[in-house]
Amino acid sequence: MSYLLNALSMLIQVAFAMIATLFLVRVAAEATRADFHNPLSQFIYRYTNPVLRPIRRVLPNWRRINLAALLMVWLTLLIERLLIFGLGGFMPLLPGLLVLSLADLLDFVLLFYIIVIFGWSLLTMLSADPYQPIIRLAGAIIEPVLRPLRGRMVVGSIDFSPTVVVIVLLLARILMAAPLFDLGSRLAQGG
């Protein structure tokens, strides 16, 4: 690929990752019942609701999971994958494209939680204001993931539960997302 195509590919990936993150935060915030009065929650609701409102009429929530927003994350990653393939001059087979975009979704969710847990841990270690909107939203999103280990991994006054959860998420990327990527690649090429 030429340098210009690499730059264009990077810009596409950044733009689509930002869109997917917006919808994924909406899914996570609703699933964890994050504080709606948080300015970040209101921002996310305001900018995702026009897209999600018509979809939610057809695809309602399942328990506390906003399936319409999850569908939008998947579709965003599918379109991104299709554009990247198009830039390379390759048109994948549909089953491979669907599996690759599902692998992208799984990997994106795992990476999202790794980054949020790492950022939240770093900010809390630096004694940032716990009432900052981003810290409150991140704390609400990761609390259900950390809750099973909370208090069980304490050494001295340091809680290692975020570290253990990040290691588990990294292993999930290797053991779950990577094989799905391999399967999708084989199917995309017709093999």
Automatic annotation (TrEMBL):
InterPro entries: CCB3/YggT. It comes from the Bacteria. Keywords: Membrane, Transmembrane, Transmembrane helix. The chain crosses the membrane at residues 6-25, 65-88, 108-128, 160-181. This is YggT family protein.
